[in-house]
Amino acid sequence: MGFSLTGTHVIFFITAVIVAGAVSGVLMAVSVNVTTSLSERGDRVKEQLDTEFVIINDNENIPSDSGFYQFYLKNIGGATLITTEEIFQVFIDGDIVETAYYNFSTTSLKIGEVSTLNIATSVISLGDHTLRVVGPLAIDEEFIFTI
After folding, report:
1. Are 4 and 67 in the same domain?
2. Secondary structure of the chain in the HEC alphabet?
3. Do 106 and 129 share a domain, yes or no?
4. pTM of the full predicted structure?
5. Range of the domain at 3
6. Domain termination site, one of 26, 50, 74
């Protein structure tokens, strides 16, 4: 004797429940991954917005003292910046300046404070130049000046 109509419906119902459970499991995993990714991305964007600085020198009157040109770096972000040669990289006209030829007057820079970036005068010749300072999270500031 064969299956009745009710038996066939029960088999289809059980199959539909299994398929629906599998689909909802996959959608749940995808939703968790998307939520995690968006949360991490939001944290990175917040950190980038908190990490912002600007060079505030007069581009035609760069001060010098004891064999160093002085550039003033102001923290305009929302968090304290660590100003060390390991964190910041300095470029003059596209060439990286070795850490032995520059230093900062402070090791940390609170919101709104200014630090002096000292670059050896032997690294910069007379004429027009571009200073590029790259900080944490690859946040950078470019400054065109004349010596």
Report:
1. no
2. CCCCHHHHHHHHHHHHHHHHHHHHHHHHHHHHHHHHHHHHHHHHHHHHHHCCEEECCCCCCCCEECCEEEEEEEECCCCCEECCCCCCEEEECCEECCHHHEEECCCEECCCCEEEEEEEHHHCCCCEEEEEEECHHHCEEEEEEEC
3. yes
4. 0.72
5. 1-50
6. 50
What does the pLDDT read at residue 115?
Answer: 96
Instruction: Sort residue 32 into left (φ over 0), alpha (ψ -120 to 50) or beta.
Output: alpha
Say if residue 58 is in the same domain as residue 104.
Answer: yes
Range 46-73 average pLDDT: 92
- Residue with tokens 């470029």, as numbered in its chain: 91
Instruction: Tell me the per-residue pLDDT of 62-119, one tens digit each, with 9 for 90 and over.
Output: 999 999 999 999 999 989 999 999 999 999 999 999 999 999 999 999 999 999 999 9
Shared domain for 68 and 24, answered yes or no, is: no
Q: Give yes or no: residues 70 and 89 share one domain.
A: yes
46 pLDDT tier (thresholds 50, 70, 90):
confident
